[in-house]
Amino acid sequence: MKIKTLLMGAAATAMFAGVATAKDLTVVSWGGAYTKSQVEAYHKPWMAKTGKSITSEDYNGGMAEIKAQVEADNVTWDLVDVELSQAISGCDEGLLETIDHSILPAAPDGTAATDDFLPGTLFDCAVANIVWSTIFAYDESVMGNNKPTTIADFFDTKKFPGKRGLRKNPKANLEMALVADGVPSDQVYDVLATPEGIDRAFAKLDTLKADAVWWEAGAQPPQLLADGEVVMTTAYNGRIFNAVASEGQDFAIVWDAQIYDLDLWVIPKGSPNKEAAMDFLAFSTATEQLAAQASWISYGPARASSAALVGSFHNNPDLAMAPQMPTAPNNFGTAIQNDFEFWADNQDELNERFNTWLAN
């Protein structure tokens, strides 16, 4: 069941029987602390500026629902926050609107947006907002003195017995498995591009299969840790940060072999509110809005000019946010950039193999 939260602007159009008028936007994202950061940094200021309202809806990723809406000529989503491989495949399939980058606001010093966004963050049908990572984490309060420090430790159930939380998806699992099996971070996709490399990754995952607890939504890993259902779990770095900073959990992130990626805004082809959607997209990816989001969650802004504006955590002036970012120098030594071309080309095949592997 999808979760919907109605967010009203000060001068928002009235709602009738729970149905939004044509002036409203439906903005779809991943829920939890991440959507909260978007609501505070993007939604509320845009609603105050325009007097329009936003219906915020959560999903678990993928292009299936966007494709179904577009092919049925019944598009109800106006903007969707997607991963990069989905943005590329969706654009190639004609499921997404083309975005004119000239609508994006310049940096405060006048630098054009096309020069201010980080390399590889602007696409024909998508505009990035954040850099995020899949990491693994553990609860320090229950781990004792023997603490994991590498991705190999995550896969070592003899040295660190107990259940492991893993996303129910081949992405990130295969890359981390190879590094745990001895492949250097900078060679992961060279190895994964071969049948032998894929076999090697699945063989390494075999060693965790009996201890795996599978998660799908980003809010699940911190809950698995908090409930003691797992001793370690892969997770989105911002979710673990939020559990520590906002909920007081004693969780620790291990950055070794983090898989870093982008999230991007896309507009489904045939959005009934395309003009307003473009306006929101431009507003939310302005320098100031991206920096404001980074005060709520530890995902790095996609614009260079935002970095200098990133301050402390929104409710703790003593907690500097810059060191919490995936791209912080101390966190980035063995980082692996998600190869969107590899996943755009191989997602379907590897999903099928992964699901078959799970079933067996």
Account of the protein in words:
With 360 residues, the protein is an alpha/beta fold. Strand 2, helix 1 and strand 3 (54-58) form a beta-alpha-beta unit. The longest helix has 20 residues, at 340-359. It contains 14 helices and 14 strands. The strands form 2 sheets. Strands 1, 2, 3, 4, 5, 6, 7, 8, 9, 10, 11 and 14 form a 12-stranded mixed sheet that branches. It starts with a strand and ends with a helix. Mean pLDDT is 92; it is low at 1-22. It has 2 domains: 4-131 and 262-324, Periplasmic binding protein-like II (D-Maltodextrin-Binding Protein, domain 2), CATH 3.40.190; 133-260 and 333-359, Periplasmic binding protein-like II (D-Maltodextrin-Binding Protein, domain 2, 3-Layer(aba) Sandwich), CATH 3.40.190.10.
Structural descriptors:
two-stranded antiparallel ribbon, 14 strands, 21% strand, alpha/beta, 2 domains, D-Maltodextrin-Binding Protein, domain 2, 360 residues
